[in-house]
From TrEMBL:
GO BP of this protein: mannosyl-inositol phosphorylceramide biosynthetic process
Keywords, sorted A to Z: Membrane, Transferase, Transmembrane, Transmembrane helix
Record bears the keyword Plastid: no
A GO term for molecular function: mannosyltransferase activity
Residues spanning the membrane: 245-263
Keyword Zinc-finger: no
GO cellular component: membrane
Name of protein: Mannosyl phosphorylinositol ceramide synthase SUR1
Cross-referenced Pfam families: Gly_transf_sug
Length: 295
């Protein structure tokens, strides 16, 4: 897992401490903070045949765990019941994969447990991961992935992801960058970068994640690479990510843009709450601005 205090936090390197995957003692593991729930999502209740074996592998290794497959209709009903203030933003996403990303954060925040993409095969018991408050996988070329997440109910980082979703509901010209930065791995990576309580976060290294390495002796997972949402502009985004100067410039623009929107909202809120005598010069200016929808 991630070694606490490591300064190279956003891009963990090979110095990440490995952990053993020995199944924890049942008596002790009953005290672990993460509940025994596996969450997966799909459009409908019938999973495509190509992923059924992967789905079953995770269920077979955890026969006494609760299992929940969330469909699109389940997701909307869940948000309506527990996060109604996010429903409009959720429905406004231009791509279905954004809704698939967002619902996993909401589900884990509300219930806790382990989220697993359908194209991931479970090779070992995940019981011992329940000892960690929050886990996300290290990914390439930078940051963290969101295809496998472990979290306690109401974890502060999950709360940050949930609260940040409306502000990061972006349109970046094409599908790949829009998804990556609005709800996907770069969204998670940026929120982790801004997160203050990093000691509660752990990172699953490549050796256990079972990806981006040929040296994994006993990985926990195997990936079928079944993602279908990647489009031709992925190469452009990956080129940007591999060039730190360009990436830094784009991230700076995103951060500055977000701050500018926050400041604009705060200023607007401040002036809207102030009372001025009717007919005063300031009241006239505000009324004029309102007529042009400038405030």
């Amino acid at each position: 897992m991630w070694r606490k205090g490591n300064t190279n936090w956003v891009m963990p390197g090979p110095e990440v401490d490995p952990i053993t995957y020995e199944v924890a003692n049942r008596t002790l593991s009953d005290q672990y903070p993460v509940p025994r729930i596996i969450h997966q999502t799909w459009k409908i209740s019938e999973v495509p045949e190509k992923w059924q074996a992967a789905q079953q592998s995770c269920r077979n290794l955890h026969p006494d765990w609760e299992y929940r497959l969330w469909t699109d209709s389940d997701a909307e009903e869940f948000i309506q019941q527990h996060y109604p203030h996010l429903l409009a933003s959720f429905k406004s996403y231009p791509y279905n994969i954004e809704r698939a990303d967002a619902i996993r954060y909401l589900i884990l925040h509300h219930h806790g447990g382990i989220y697993i993409d359908l194209d991931i095969v479970c090779l070992r018991s995940l019981e011992f991961l329940r000892a960690y408050e929050f886990i996300m996988p290290q990914t390439m070329p930078v940051g963290f992935s969101n295809d496998f997440l472990v979290g306690t109910k109401g974890h502060p980082f999950l709360a940050k992801l949930v609260s940040s979703l409306p502000r990061w509901n972006l349109r970046l010209g094409s599908k790949y960058p829009t998804v990556m930065f609005s709800t996907g791995p770069m969204f998670v990576t940026l929120q982790a970068t801004f997160f203050r309580s990093r000691k509660s976060l752990s990172v699953l290294p490549f050796s256990l994640y079972g990806k981006y390495t040929t040296k994994a002796v006993d990985p926990l997972l195997r990936h079928l690479y079944g993602s279908s949402w990647h489009s031709s502009d992925a190469r452009s985004v990956l080129w940007i990510i591999k060039h730190p100067v360009v990436l830094g410039g784009l991230l700076s623009l995103l951060v500055l843009g977000t701050l500018a929107l926050a400041v604009r909202h705060r200023v607007k809120q401040h002036w809207s709450q102030r009372q001025f005598p009717q007919g005063s010069r300031r009241a006239q200016i505000i009324a004029l601005a309102e007529s042009f929808k400038l405030t």
